[in-house]
Sequence to fold (332 residues):
Amino acid sequence: MSAAQTQSRSVLAGIADDPLLEISGLVVETGPARRPIELLRSIELAIPKGARVGVVGESGSGKSMTASAILGVLPNGVRARAGTIRFDGRDLMTLPEREMRRIRGGEISLVSQNAVASLNPLMTVGAQIAKVCREHTGVSKQEAWTRTVELLDALGIPEPDVRARSYPHHFSGGMAQRVAIAMALICSPQLVIADEPTTGLDATIQAQVLEVIDGSVKASGAALLLISHDLAVIRAMCDIVAVVYAGSLLEYGPADEVLNRPLSPYTQGLIRCMDPPEGEIAFIPGRIPEPGTLGAGCPFAERCDRATDACRAQQPALRQLRPDHWVSCHHE
Ligand SMILES: Nc1ncnc2c1ncn2[C@@H]1O[C@H](COP(=O)(O)OP(=O)(O)O)[C@@H](O)[C@H]1O
Ligand SMILES: [Mg+2]
Fold:
């Protein structure tokens, strides 16, 4: 491996011999170039092949922005300033848009929160799914349609050949989310990114949709990046957990380690909120800082009951403290 390649390895290098996706030192900013506002300050992430990695953190932490950076679809006025996103041997940040278009929907696909909004209201759902299939695989129209109906069937949509011919507005929220999952899976991607895929659905439907994601990812062998502000969802689905806060990765490790023996005070707070002691309503006092208001210290220092002058002065480096378990905290 050359020196340049060594430098681009994530701090998390070693988490897997040959990770499918590896983000290193990702900085994403907005605003004028002379006075940029950092939205992602230091994101590291590794997704081993076939793994399920959960990204958790309060709203505004940078979860969706990280997904957008991976897919190469940052919003207007938002740009990546530093870092690498290595996917299957390529750096996505330097890939021409033509290549990225092939990867998006083909090798990496997205299931977003609002499935109905992500579907084209003027096309039948079957035609939309079959179109994605044809664009990325070049199979015949008929073969694409057959695969579409089979997949809808596998995802638990009743009368799939009839439903494939109907329009998105005829689908309930839960059924529309299955369609979005079908669209994400039709090309057998290596990585499925699901960004809050069940937020906004009824609790009973949520469980069904998670089950569909669980089963279909398992069947296809794809890796899953599951983004959620809900730790219970992550706990149910993932084998690795990444905790992000205000644009930085604070903790990363095996799910049972991170959720049962958390090292970061922020993760500890999130877990207390999920499962508060009897008769208590738990919350983390204060709120996530606005982008651009952070100094050089730990982003969580302002809300952390263990914060010291050192925490306020310098952001702690990400360090491996237990096997495969990393944390950014001066106290650990
Ligand atoms: N288009 C945009 N332009 C500028 N800032 C944005 C834009 N979209 C999101 N942000 C900001 O980026 C930060 C991260 O947002 P996001 O990734 O959506 O958080 P999360 O998904 O964790 O809730 C937030 O502070 C948010 O306000
Ligand atoms: Mg989001």
